[in-house]
Amino acid sequence: MGPVSAGPDPAVPHLLVTGAGGFLGGAVVRAAQAAGWRVRAVVRRHDPALEVEQAVIDLAAEAARPALAAALEGVTAVVHAAAASGDDAAHARGTVAATQAVIAAMLARPGPPRLVLISSMAVYGYAALPAGVQVDETTPLEPDPALRDAYCRAKLAQEGLARRAAQAEGLAVWALRPGAIVGPGRMRTARLGIALGPVLVMPGGAAALPLITVEDCAAAVLCAARTAPAPSDYPVVAGTGCFAAVNLIGADQPSQAAHAARLARDGWPRRVVRLPLALARAPARLLALPGALLPGLVRRAPGPLRLETFDARFKPLRYSTARHADRLRPAGGGDGPESGTGGGGMGATGSGQAQDSTQDSTQDTGHDTARGPSADTARDARKDPVKDRTNDRAGGPGAPP
């Protein structure tokens, strides 16, 4: 008789990663493989670049439920990095409905795995913040999602779904809110300003950029996947769930001007036009009053002409990295952020667009959609102010990076 296989080692984490073909999802898969984890990737189409087991699933389709049930077999943690891009209809299907499907499949299992939700700093309410204050996980969420973009509304809705599952159904949730995720070929961010071909029009120039490298972000995700979230940011009314939010930001937070100077060494921008912040903000302020009377007018305006979006991108603020360093420092120290408020600059350069939560460019799954986030989810997002918490933080639900 041949040797009997002992089967998978239960001590080895088994990770399910949605959005595994995206910028961050792919980095998480690679980091987990390098750490010796078992990894199963959820993709919309088979990806030959991913050298792991793949489950081809359209998360927003009806057929996703049984497929997800099979994909979750043996899994100890789920990294949900899948999301759509585009308008409210696209996000309703590819972000909100997909998240509903993932959470429902997890809760259907006895002893559901841990959820690591890739959210965004876009969930915060920036317009009410005075310039120069520190943003952390206690910063209030966006109080008026209708004045923000579809991306912000979808991220608030995602967090609302996860939060309710944690509070009432026993799900353990990390809500990770990255700033602008940068890496090889993706170093630009909407926080720099407005790109007009080779020219960058920069409002202000002194605002710190909440950047994090894709490698550091993936390391924090893996740390969350193997760590029980605690304490909970919201009261748990039933079960043993937990909802813990952490902003993911690197210690190096260069100014707009400093980061643009690094990018210029690779050929873009060829020219930077810096505008005084008050002058650059004036058009958005002028639109704010008629926009309050005619909300559709503001919703159709480009981001920098919407006051809330302008403030989310360009208001000079400080960003705490304390909770990230305290709760999600990689084992053995690693390259996580130093505790405190970042400053300085990143050494990496490149010209591509960063995965940035101030705009519609974070996770990708390419799900089509046919409707916007429901009124209930938008209303729930507004009804759940972030309660005063004792832990330090570097961003929270509802803020664009």
List keywords for this structure.
about 400 residues; alpha/beta; Rossmann fold; seven-stranded parallel β-sheet; three-stranded mixed β-sheet; about 30% helix; about 15% strand; disordered N terminus; disordered C terminus
Task: Please sum up the structure shown.
With 401 residues, this protein is α/β, with parallel strands linked by helices. It is built from eleven helices and 14 strands. The chain has helices spanning 23-34, 64-71, 88-107, 150-169, 214-225, 256-264, 277-293, 295-299, 307-314, 322-327, 375-383; strands at 14-18, 38-43, 53-56, 77-80, 114-118, 134-135, 172-178, 180-182, 194-196, 199-203, 211-213, 242-248, 271-275, 318-319.
Low-confidence stretches: 1-7, 342-351, 357-401
Neighbour order of strands in the largest sheet: 3-2-1-4-5-7-12
- The total strand number stands at 14
% residues in beta strands: 15-25%
Order of helices and strands: EHEEHEHEEHEEEEEHEHEHHHEHH
Specify Rg, calculated over alpha carbons. Answer: 20 Å
Give the CATH class of the domain at 14-184 and 210-251 and 320-383. Answer: Alpha Beta
The largest sheet, given as strand count, sense and whether it forms a barrel, is:
7 strands, parallel
CATH superfamily of the domain at 14-184 and 210-251 and 320-383: NAD(P)-binding Rossmann-like Domain
Overall mean pLDDT score?
A: 83
**Helicity, as a percent range:** 25-40%
By helix and strand content, what is the structural category?
A: alpha/beta
From the spread of the alpha carbons, the general shape counts as: globular
